[in-house]
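Our working data are protein records whose layout never changes between entries. Instead of coordinates, the fold is spelled out as a row of discrete tokens. Here is such a record, shown just as it appears in the course material:
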Amino acid sequence: MITLQPSPARPAPGVRRGLLVLGLIALLSQGWGRAADPVARHSGGILRLALEADPRSLDAGQVFSNEEGTVGFLLFNTLLEAGPEGGFVPVLAEGLPEGSADGLAYRFRLKQGVRFANGQELEAADVVHSLERCFDPEAAAVNLAYFTSILGGLEFLEARKKELATPRRPGHDPGPSRWIEPRRVEGLRAVDTRTVEIRLSRRDLGFLHVLTTLSAAIVPRSETTRLGRQFATHPVGTGPFVVKTWTRGARIRMVRNPYYFKADRPGPDAVDVLVGLDRSTQAMMFERGELDFEYYITDPDLTRFRRDPRMKACLKRVVGSTPTFAFLNCEIPPFTNRLVRVALNHAIDREAAVRLMSNRAVAQRGPLPLTVRGFNQELPEYAYDPARARALLAEAGYPNGFATTLWCNPKDPTWWRLGLFVQESLRKVGVSVSMREISYTGLIDASGRRRTVPMGIWDWVSAYDDPRDTLDSLLNGNNLSEDGCINNAFYSAPRVDELFRKSAAEGDPGRRLSLFRQIERQVVEDAPWIFLVQMNLDSLCQPWVKGMSLRGFWPPAHLEDCWIDR
């Protein structure tokens, strides 16, 4: 029996961003929200966006790119969202959760009268189902590692894997019911139709942050069960919009969710997403007033817009939000040898890489984005030293270098330029690099499979303001899997893996941060990546679009609360 302690009504100010102890939940405000905008809000109009390619998926648990995430938040809601000063704001929850005294349980009361876009009322069973899907291989969730502290989740995952690999026993009902125990996640329980209890196997100071991410968005169990994997193209959520039509390669049309629980919410009547437009075309359309927002800007367009007072006013920037690096697969020789990995880092002139990026970046020192609390400014840096690189290669047994392949998406100009830069830099120290062109989605799939991609260009935007997201997702050897692995360097080091286990169980914020900083330092020393640059995010937003939020976390652009004021 778990004893839950209710939260008091009023908060204490000054809670440090990103580090919440369960016992401090009682000090957080249930009324914290976004400040009222002094500009009068208007309803109506069409919000016009564009994408270079169709989303891989619009299932909340599968979205991965910045663009997919921005569209996803137009369709789905979470129990909580990130609030000011590291706090949380209830969204589908009626208020902040009650936390147990031992820090191992949360109880949420759901808002009354919330409906999905299909008219079905939100119930606690939908919340249980949504979080359970994170552990179901059939749901193909991309961020399983976020949820591993939920009690019984990994056991549930193993049971579902066995079911997929094991034919049903003769005479068994051929329907979709589960038959291998455990058939449910022990730590997820619908107490009643509006109350959800989540129990953890260990203290996890980052867990409430996880519940603000799109991976924890709430979906209707009836629709995901009925549609299966087709839910990816027929998404249904509680958000302000619903997909009306999706013409592959051409357009996604979203209209207002008639059941949206914020009935008096102003905003556009529809969202039009044009698909298949390159960045230069998007820039021309934006300049003509035919698009309302553009995520990415080419260097020539950015230079031109900075000289135009009207366009300059539309520019939005977040500095250092996106670590961009070459991952080195630590399970494929010669990258199994630390000396080789260190040598390649000494072969890179990061200041030259920054110049190559038209100074839209800073040199990358460590794995965390600059925007994440806890970024360690005192991390050691790899000096540009080709002679040292050649000496280390010789010491590792490669005096004449070696040949390898770098996988890269040529449609991403940043990635492709950095890939060519790495190719040329390594050539100067005797390493022959062949470029393998592959699509973004192809690289996601291939780099997540064990012993497949030797090295590749990659980047990352943290989903929330805590070191755990980037470090645990990309570098925790305890989370390695045969496929679908986000740790595409397949990096695992005994000391680092032990530090991750300690950080997962640590209840003291200061000690937890110290563990993460030890992880950062050891990762830099082990060099599973060639550290390159921290890219800035430069985007465009029309002056008549109000309420758009651009921040240093994934997805950077939030449009769900915007409105059009022409």
The first helix runs from residue 66 to 75.
